[in-house]
Task: structure prediction
Amino acid sequence: MLTEVEWNRVLDGTSSARALIQPDGDCCNRLGSIGSWRSRLVIYRDGQYVWDGTVTDVTWRLGEVEVVAEDVSVWLDDRVPHATKVFTNVDLSEIAQWLVEDGFAPDDPGHVVEIVGKAGVTGSRSYTAGIGQSGDHLRQLAEAGIDYTVIGNKILLLPETQLISVGRLSDADLPEGLEVGEDGKSLVTRWIIEGSDDSGVIGTAGGTDAYYGLHERYIQMTEISDASSAMQAAQARLRTTSQVPVFIDTQQVTISPLAAIDVPSLVPGWALDVTSASTCRRVTQRLKITGVKVTETGGDSDTPGSESVQVQVAAAATEVA
Result:
């Protein structure tokens, strides 16, 4: 019997899911054959396919089995570039697609790449066969002007600037309230990005802000090979860090069933129109979905089951402005 299930979706990262099972009948023998990297956990909500991923951890206890899985992008953390590749002034979506396809080329667990929209940011990158993890390369690219998320076995690539709404939330939809917060530590008003050691290039963007002052950050991106790409990467980071971002969390409350929200449509990278006056920080804004977490308990004959839907949304610096 399935007693608890939890699944999430994240932006620019790998999502996970968990299932808690109390075996009955002959289930125990079958549950004993579950294997990490050999089995998949597939989740449906009201008959709709909402999550799919590879089992990465199994725990067998007395009268209970816990299964943990991660989406298809987790494989990229165990892959390296299999070819040496140089890109010159191409859209970042093309580079991201190559990283994924190359990572899965020798052994494909089953994936699809869909470019929802071009990044609108071009750059030059170089990758060397056998150097670095493909997952790290993809996440680093996502910090330079492109977003990605995973739904089922599909990896979606989309522009950072996308703000297409999939629903609306107000205080009436969140009877237990929400939390509005600022992340001051993520503020950067000037970026310095160094390319590969061989190229010697450095790109900068930003400076002293009249309101916030000067907050500088340096990083090296060894896959960047020319000054233009370093500068574009710095500009892309500045767009999302030049003002203190606002985050809203529904604190694991259950969104009202009357809300104009279709839970399977809550996909990171898309947006929600949020209107709230329940805290001292009033919000009336279209905000990007950055995470979704759904937890459901099965209940028993005496206690009904319940579902909790948690949504995290955020305003990047461009939207805050």
